[in-house]
Amino acid sequence: MLKALVFGAVSTVGLFFAGVAQAQSPADIAQYTTVARQIELQRMQDIAEVKRLMGGNVPENVCQQGNLPSKVREICDRFDTHSRTILQKNGMPVAKFNDVVRFCQQNPIPKECPARPR
Question: Distance between CA 87 and CA 73 in Å, rounded?
Answer without folding.
Answer: 21
